[in-house]
Amino acid sequence: MRPPKETKDERFRRLAEARVNKILDLFRLLGNLSGTANYIYSKEQVEQIFTTLQLALVKTKMRFLQSPERKKKRFSLGEPYEVDEPAAKADNPAFAIPLPDGTYLRAVAFPNFDYPCINIYWDNGVNEPTETLCFVEFNPEKEGSQKVCIGVYRADQEDTTYYEPYFTAERIEDE
Fold it and tell me: So where are the chain's domains?
């Protein structure tokens, strides 16, 4: 008699548990390199290691958050052109900085042709989605060196509370 066929959920659970445990073992092995009796390393090397790991983790998580319809969508000239936002976000460069309280500051670059920008988010583990704190963008509607602008949000307001060019008109005149 054949054993019952494994369901997709059972297969996911079995493989996810095995793979996460392998990754945790590798993290433990990586942590063994912190022993200064046997190794010497710089802060820059440590930052490079953990920045790489954090970026890989964010990219992997984004793959899980993509809707299945978007993952398998095929190109067709017969359909109107639409930007696949979730797929684009999965490829955006990101960097997370852990804070002492267990939350993170996360910077995500959006290389949009018209308004390229970098957003700073607070991953606080409470709010969904993550809170946007501020951004820096290139605004082609501004003149000259005032095209690089900074925007800041407040938790109690929906709209941007501060939005100004990085170089003020007074600073440009002084130079």
Answer: 8-71, 92-174
